[in-house]
């Protein structure tokens, strides 16, 4: 009788431990992360075509192109492994490199507005549309990853599953963050008053 009681107690305690939930959510977050990486790779693959098309404009600002090329090289040089998801420092380093590439590409697109021949180039227009679509895909993939990490982290921090998390070393995963959080938290100043004459 005592043996059956112990088996029943073990079964009841294990059913609420969340071990299987951790396995499921860990795999979901890895899958979502893979999609983020897939979209970042798609963007990185577009950069050489964009740069080659823009180089055709002889008077284009070389400094802008150089920054895009350097940002791409830096973003693609970071080795991403499954451990990156569990290492906040490595995750942040990867996120910064991708942010620098996004920024460089944004500057390139803004500067390209000053070159009518480039704007009229069909290949450049097609690449620009593809880049915009890729940026949207990155946003969607990042949002899915954020949601999967949130679900995982809630499980890792909630009782009684937090005990399972500690026993099996399921630490909360890092998530995407905004690089300039303090800057964007300050509301912009808007002045509709008439300019002084």
Largest sheet: none
Overall 3D geometry? Answer: elongated
First and last CA, distance? 96 Å
Query: Could you give the order of the helices and strands?
Result: HHHHHHHH
The helix content is: over 70%
**Amount of beta strand:** under 5%
Cα gyration radius (Å): 24 Å
The stretches of 5 or more residues where confidence is low (pLDDT under 50) are none
| Count of DSSP H/I helices | 8
Main location: membrane
Keywords: Membrane, Transmembrane, Transmembrane helix
GO cellular component, one term: membrane
InterPro entries: LemA-like_dom_sf, MamQ_LemA
Which characteristics define this entry?
single chain, 197 residues, mainly alpha, elongated, LemA protein, MamQ_LemA, LemA-like_dom_sf, transmembrane helix
Structure explained in plain terms:
By secondary structure, the chain is an all-alpha fold. It has eight helices and no strands.
Topology (elements, then pairings):
Elements: H1 2-15, H2 19-55, H3 62-77, H4 88-112, H5 116-120, H6 122-157, H7 161-167, H8 181-185
Q: How would you sum up this structure in a few lines?
A:
The protein has eight helices and no strands.
